[in-house]
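New to this. Please check this fold:
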Amino acid sequence: MPESSPPTPQRCRRLFVRVVGRLSGVCGVMAGLMILVSVVITCQMIWMRFVLNASTIWQTEAVTYLMIGATLIGLPYVQLIRGHVNVDLLPMLLPPAWRKRLALLVVVISMAVIGIMTYHGFELFHVAWERNWRSETVWGVSLWIPYLAMPLGFGLFVLQLLADLVASWLCDEEILEHGEFEEDY
């Protein structure tokens, strides 16, 4: 008789949690594409400089903005797949009920801190938009474009954290739980 695999846990069926999860997935794809484009631009820059012996104007700045944007836009996706760095020494010492309470507290505090970062990121984006700030390079890109990644990325990260909180409360999903010590190592 073949061994049956353990049942896979049911994902939360709440519309909000599903929509935010899909949005976070789209953010992951966008971040990946931004990294891919930055690699292509870097290759083009190397070709221009070392093969054609031509100068480059916009490439370094574009790659920098794309990588920062990919990092910020990718935040919700990394949260969705639980890819952020975890320090789980204290949670592993706590009983399961206290472990979940600690995880909920950490998510709420994280939402508050990242919410503040979202607010100030939006403020910076808005000032750059209103005053038509441009970079002080030959390319002179409008700075509101790269600055938009801050409120967008942090705001979507807070939204994903909220979806995690909703899924934990309303769906009995163990998304905030840590694994067993033996499984992690």
Remarks:
- The radius of gyration is 21 Å.
- Residues 66 and 96 are 41 Å apart (CA to CA).
- Residues 5-9, 178-185 have pLDDT under 50 and may be disordered.
- The longest helix spans residues 15-51.
